[in-house]
Structure formats: structure tokens, C-alpha cells
């Protein structure tokens, strides 16, 4: 779910660098070309007053790229810290403990972070916001939320969860609707 947002953020960052350096480009130019052109003008970037901020953003995106492409095997990304906007990666034990502490010092309830993350994804309305029971189960598991495919199917049979559509004869569910079923008794 975070990869789509990361690509979008890097595209925005590349465009911002292009404008800051007065590069001759159009909005259809690939971000890779803009970033390459910006890297060839490092002295001009270094003389800017906001270089510390630019470096911070570049490091953050580089770190997020590494974590997205090669995530730690024992951790899951559960969402973003509302204070510093860092990605919060937790072990299953930390998730079960229900509370996490961000590097900025903020103490957060895991379910609140997960809910905010899922709400953001649901509002984005991309292809990851819905899927079959199996697909939604796998997607939620990648974000530290355990719900079995059979449980989702039982919620449908009991009338707790209503499919938003059908794909090859299988019901399709919105991630947000499944989340609301998970936390309905909390």
C-alpha cells in the first residue's frame, strides 16, 4: 500500500527539485531524468538555504525505498507516526503488545496507527483498496493485521460484511469494510 504513495512522493520531490533549479522540463518528463539532472547540479543545490530540508527528504525517500523493496523479515509496516510521519515497523510481538514508541518519542496505540493507515489507503481508491477475501487477508497481514480468509467469508454469510462487487464469481470486499468488522467490538 505504501509503494504507490512512495512513487508519487518521489515524483513530487523530483518536480520540486526541477523547479528549484529552474530546469527546462515538462510534467511528462520521467522523475529519473529530473533526479539525474538535479544530481549534476549539486553545487547549485548546496548553495540553497533549504538544503538541510532537501537532504532530509532525500534520505527519507531513500530509506523508504530500501524498506519497501527489501522489508525486514521479522517486521511489518503498520502505518505512519502522526507526529514525525516516519513509517512504523513492528514485530508481531510489538503488535500484540498494542503499544509502540516511535523514534521521535511518541507513544502510539497500534490499532490507531493501523486504522489511520487503512483510512488513508481507502481514501486513495486505488486497486489495493479492495479484493477477494484471500487478497484482502494477505494485504492486511502485510500490514500487521491478522484476519483469515474464512473469517471474512463467515462475516459475509452472517450479514456482517457486504461485498462491493464480484470478480470471477468470487465476492470482492473493501479493505476498510473488513477493518471495520475487525474492530467492531473494540
UniProtKB/TrEMBL annotation:
This is PhnA protein.
Amino acid at each position: 500500500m505504501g509503494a504507490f504513495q512512495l512513487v508519487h512522493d518521489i515524483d513530487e520531490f523530483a518536480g520540486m527539485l526541477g523547479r528549484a533549479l529552474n530546469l527546462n522540463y515538462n510534467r511528462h518528463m520521467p522523475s529519473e531524468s529530473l533526479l539525474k539532472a538535479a544530481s549534476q547540479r549539486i553545487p547549485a543545490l548546496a548553495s540553497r538555504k533549504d538544503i538541510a530540508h532537501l537532504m532530509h527528504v532525500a534520505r527519507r525517500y531513500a530509506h523508504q525505498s530500501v524498506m519497501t523493496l527489501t522489508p525486514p523479515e521479522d517486521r511489518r509496516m503498520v502505518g505512519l507516526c502522526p507526529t514525525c510521519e516516519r513509517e512504523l515497523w513492528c514485530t508481531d510481538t510489538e503488535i500484540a503488545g498494542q503499544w509502540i514508541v516511535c523514534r521521535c518519542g511518541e507513544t502510539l496505540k497500534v490499532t490507531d496507527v493501523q486504522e489511520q493507515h487503512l483510512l488513508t489507503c481507502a481514501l486513495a481508491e486505488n486497486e489495493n483498496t479492495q479484493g477477494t477475501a484471500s487478497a484482502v487477508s494477505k494485504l492486511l497481514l502485510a500490514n500487521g493485521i491478522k484476519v483469515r480468509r474464512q473469517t471474512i467469508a463467515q462475516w459475509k454469510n452472517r450479514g456482517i460484511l457486504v461485498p462491493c462487487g464480484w470478480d470471477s464469481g468470487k465476492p470482492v470486499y473493501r479493505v476498510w469494510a473488513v477493518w471495520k468488522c475487525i474492530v467492531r467490538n473494540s
